[in-house]
Amino acid sequence: MDTWLRIIGIIVCLVSPSLFAVEKIPKHLTQFTELELALLIQQPALAKFIQQQNQENIPLSVIKTLDKEWRQTRGLNYLMAELLRNQCALRLLDLELNYPFVMESFIADQQGALVCMTEKTSDYWQGDENIFIKAFAQGKGQIYYEDAHYDLSVGETVVQVSIPIRLQQQVVGVATFSISLDRWERR
Predict the structure, then answer these.
(1) Which listed site, 38, 144, 154, 169, has its alpha carbon 20 to 30 Å from 178?
(2) Distance CA 177, CA 41 (A)
(3) What is the pTM of this model?
(4) Is 3.30.450.20 the CATH number for 25-186?
(5) In the chain, domain spans
(6) pLDDT digit string (tens) for 77-114?
(7) Residue 36 DSSP label
(8) 37-52: string of b/e by CB count within 10 Å (b at 16+)?
């Protein structure tokens, strides 16, 4: 039954993708993001995880090589498994347990390379994507909301929210959360 519903959903999206476009993020969600989630994510321990990776000064060419391998890997490799189970990821998982409308979360360093994640992402390097570029804002940092969309893989309307993480007023990385608007409305 689920398979047929997804097939119908795919057909409807192809015929009329505007049916699933959500133009406005609920005001209560932006308030939650700016007043609560943004504060929760500013944990000194998270900033230190990011700063440790930043201090490694991994060349962008190495990050892009890892990204290429990542995108070609089915299942999990060692790096993916480590990013799913490190202390940073465990803190994000704890946050997701407390807020069930948060479906996925990950943190990237100042170059956009992943530091931790709660689900395998489609790529390792986030530095070329708006969710990173707009939130990092050339080191100034700002909360960024991606357009909400219907995600066929989960069967829900989802918005990605990216929040800069600071250490001593300096933006050291970006946390991104996939939030289900369907679950948000039912909370």
Answers:
(1) 169
(2) 11
(3) 0.86
(4) yes
(5) 25-186
(6) 999 999 999 999 999 999 999 999 999 999 999 999 99
(7) I
(8) bbeebeeeebbebbbe
